[in-house]
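The data are set out underneath:

___
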Amino acid sequence: MAPTNNQLYKTRQLTGAKAPKAKVARYLKSTEAVLREPGKNALLLQGISCSQTMTQVLKELRAVQAPRAKLLTKKNQIVPFSTSGQQSLEFLTTKNDCALLALASHNKKRPNNLILGRTFDRTILDLCELGVLRFKSMHDYGGSVPKKRIGSKPLLLFVGDGWEQSSNLDARNLRNLLVDFYRGDVVDKLTLSGIDHAIVFTWADVASSNGIASRSLIHQRTYFVKLKKNVNSSINSSAPLPQLIPSGPDLDLVVRRSQWAESDLYQAARKQPSSAKPKKTKNHSTNMFGETIGRLHVTKQDVDGRQGRKVKALRRAEKIANVEEKAAIEAELEQEKSEMSTEFKATFGFAENQ
């Protein structure tokens, strides 16, 4: 495994050694953070002892996550929730360039055990231990069920009120982990043919005989999405009609143990550079229907002083209106003149023009 940047920096400070060779420098440069990260790779490995069922679970997880999954067949003496076990996981994930991990094991105390986790900056961020109560393989559905295409993205659906409960920390963090584990590459646009399978996670609280909820189960079901022509749609619509075909793998899970990241470490993992954030466009807003509304600022326009085009009929009407207005003004002036003459004669006893 190549040394990290911090390790090289500390080594040069302590020993005064020279800069790393060109090959090591190129490797370090290729592992540096970029503004747009590619999809995360998943490392699938076996624990101290692993049953045939859990080995098949790992194989089918690799089939679902292909091509961003790497399966190690060798058994590892790793206890994930211990300090030494987490150091081993950090070493293996860094060596294989994987940010996600899944470790399967089986023993008398914890049968059919599956641990999902992820790393940040080459350190363990989250770990969640799940017990597999029921497993149905893709082979159990027969060879007639089509398989997902390599590189296609799944449609993830979370059903149940348990995922939304603010008091249920395991549910909220586990949902975030499952989305990160199955989503694949981050893309801006998708075609309908790019979504060929759907994974449904159902949260169910199983009650005991006296009505008290004893534990919560997570039902994972995988379906192949087959697109058919919708004959009942309108003529202008070309949207196909999806048909869900159960294809596996199907799992019934229960949460056994969890180790979630501290708040400061989680905030550091979510931090994004300012250049990667979308810039806010001024005077643009989006309404509840997703429509973009813009506001334009222009100077005041003098509409009254502008001369528009006038047709012959309008010019004739304007000329008649001007003549009528002039005649009305002259009639009013004549009336005022006669009234003033009458008032003058009444006051002085003779007419003004005498």
